[in-house]
Design brief:
Layout lengths: L15 E5 L12 H13 L5 E8 L4 E9 L13 E3 L4 H14 L20 E4 L6 H11 L11 H7 L3 E4 L6 H5 L13 H10 L7 H8 L17 H13 L3 H13 L4 E2 L12 E2 L6 E2 L29 E3 H12 L3 E2 L2 E2 L3 H7 L11 E3 L4 E3 L1 H6 L7 E4 L5 E5 L4 E6 L12 H18 L4
Antiparallel strand pairs: 1-3, 2-3, 2-17, 4-10, 5-6, 7-10, 8-9, 11-12, 13-14, 14-15, 15-16, 16-17
């Protein structure tokens, strides 16, 4: 594994190119955009991020706020706007879930269907347990709660690994359903569990080096699940498998489904799986060990040593991690959700389906909110701490892309970057920036209607 990398002294991070785009801003909503600008800029000026692009739109697509900040020493002569392409990783998940739910509306499958109906390769999958017979997800989740909920406190924790590796495998007596995949209750995982033996198993498969979804399913079938399906919640590659189900239920690949069911009828250009010649992707950066630098390929290793293959030659379509998107394009998708299934006069999902997406499904006892269908809905805690408001629909991606939907004010917001691991001074970015936004929005709420 090549350990060489190009590092930059902290002083260079202060040479920042700032560009503020104030045209079309709805000053009735954002009274003082400069106050938000200052918070956004802080996270590039302090060496946390190489770039940030932020955009807020109304339900009709009017721009309420837009701002970009670029570290000119890392990205010279670089301009970021709504048409710039980003690797959006887990922001792919809600798109895949919506595609699957559209297939359900059309009667091609149901949420109660067994996954093996579409992926018979999974019929003999085992459950990974520790020496006492406890599924590893149960053990990890208990530790996670006791540790205060921070991944860095337990990832590859030697106590956990020594108590659970080597693992034992037991038969799975429960039916894994399509809805289990949506809710991260099926038992799939990334190479970021607290258990080194499981992580090494994922790493050895190196799913992103495979040439088709068929090959990935065959390799996944040889791995154990981290829990009994339906017994708990464990975040992982469940939505990737959901995409495989959608492909087999429809007889089309995810790119075809995306084109036919979302992009063409809704008029969305900025979503895709594979590169075209005119797309220039931004580099990946890392703040590991506190220093902002270009990332090594092996660092983005949640599915193995290689990153997602975006080339036209690849036949892999990863519904949980594999999409590319522009901020403008993803904002249109979010506005479809905000409008309960309709965009540009076309109904994509029934209103009742969208209501099910943001209804409570998992993590119901979490003081910070709950999970809908892979859509986090914030509690009053955000309001109390000045991080936003109650009832926001939120999500994000592996390289620090983030979104929220505000159903009260009919707004969608996105904070975009391309950054693998954030140094300490960059933690809590989204809460602080969103808090600055809502400080302005609350002023607008209190203003008399003219």
């Amino acid at each position: 594994m090549n350990k060489r990398f190009c590092s930059y002294p902290f002083a260079l991070l202060l040479f920042v190119q700032l560009s503020c785009m104030n045209s079309n801003k709805q000053t009735s909503l954002i009274e003082d955009p400069a106050a938000i600008d200052a918070v956004v800029e802080e996270y590039v000026n302090n060496g946390s991020f190489p770039l940030l692009y932020m955009r807020i739109e109304s339900a009709d697509g009017d721009i309420a706020y837009e701002h970009q900040v670029v570290n000119d020493s890392l990205l010279p002569n670089t301009n970021i706007d709504g048409d710039s392409w980003f690797r959006i990783w887990s922001m792919s998940k809600i798109v895949t879930i919506c595609l699957l739910l559209d297939l359900v509306e059309d009667g091609l499958l149901t949420l109660d269907d067994p996954v093996v109906k579409y992926i018979p390769e999974f019929k003999d999958m085992k459950i990974a347990v520790n020496t006492e017979g406890v599924p590893l997800a149960n053990y990890a989740n208990d530790y996670f709660k006791n540790a205060g909920g921070f991944a860095e406190e337990y990832e590859n924790n030697p106590t956990l690994s020594s108590n659970s590796c080597p693992i034992k495998l037991i038969d799975n007596s429960e039916v894994m359903t399509v809805e289990h995949l949506i809710n991260h209750q099926a038992g799939f995982y990334y190479a970021t569990t607290p258990f080194q033996c499981l992580n090494e198993m994922v790493y050895s498969k190196d799913f992103n080096s495979l040439k088709s979804n068929e090959e990935i399913m065959a390799e996944m079938a040889e791995m154990p699940l981290i829990m009994v399906p339906g017994s708990d919640y464990f975040y992982g590659s469940n939505t990737t498998v959901l995409g495989f189900v959608a492909e087999r239920a429809s007889g089309k690949n995810l790119q075809e489904l995306l084109n036919e069911r979302i992009k063409m009828p809704l008029g969305i250009e900025g979503l895709r799986y594979k590169l075209t010649p005119e797309i220039n992707l931004l580099p990946t950066f890392s703040g590991k060990n506190g220093s902002l630098r270009f990332a090594q390929k092996e660092e983005l290793d949640i599915l193995g040593a290689n990153t997602v293959d975006y080339s036209q030659e690849s036949k892999t379509f990863l519904g949980g991690e594999g999409m590319l998107g522009t901020t403008k394009g993803y904002a249109k998708f979010l506005r479809m959700l905000l409008n309960h299934g309709i965009l540009n006069g076309h109904r994509f999902l029934d209103k009742s389906t969208v209501e099910q997406i943001y209804a409570p499904h998992t993590q119901l006892e979490n003081e910070w909110g709950y999970n809908g269908y892979n859509l986090w809905v914030s509690s009053s805690k955000d309001l109390e701490l000045g991080y936003g408001d109650e009832g926001l629909w939120r999500g994000g991606g592996y390289e620090q892309t983030n979104f929220w939907v505000d159903p009260k004010r009919k707004l969608v917001g996105l904070i975009m970057s391309q950054m693998f691991e954030v140094p300490q001074q960059g933690h809590n970015r989204d809460n602080h920036i969103r808090g600055a936004v809502y400080k302005q929005l609350f002023k607008s709420d209190a203003a008399p209607i003219k």
